[in-house]
Amino acid sequence: MKFxxxxxxxxxxxxxxxxxxxxxxxxxxxLDQHDQPFTLDDRTTTxxxxxxxDGAKLLKQAMAxxxxxxxxxxxxxxxxxxxxxxxxxxxxxxxPAMRDYSYRxxxxxxxxxxxxxxxxxxxxxxxxxxxxxxxxxxEYTQAAELREALEQARP
Length: 155
Description:
A seven-stranded mixed β-sheet has the order 2-1-5-4-3-6-7. By secondary structure, it is of the alpha/beta class. It has a single domain, classed as 3-Layer(aba) Sandwich (Glutaredoxin), CATH 3.40.30.10. Helix 2 crosses helix 5. The chain contains five helices and seven strands. A hairpin with a 2-residue loop joins strand 6 and strand 7 (133-140).
């Protein structure tokens, strides 16, 4: 019986943090791979979130051969949760490599933003927004499907 109560109390906080359709996203600011700040505002229509390296690689595959400004033209932003990456590796190797990407990567170094949006690891969470409110959510685990969704999200 005690186990059931313990389980219930462990799961209740997860429900409290679930983002519901129609809910307004709280604004946040993160630095990108060039140390330039970005603040989530009402102009953003698509928020892409990768919780781990596999999710980030998935977006990189989907963005292969896309021109610079591709995401920005679609009012989309990409958040990469890099909290679990050792700081030395991030500073010396990963972030410098990201500077060559044709798209902006917002670096969530402390998982304070990505943790607001529950989703599976190894996937890219797609949050469709309008005026700062959540319209729909999708998860992509295949680069081809993500690429197709990005193509359909024309400006």
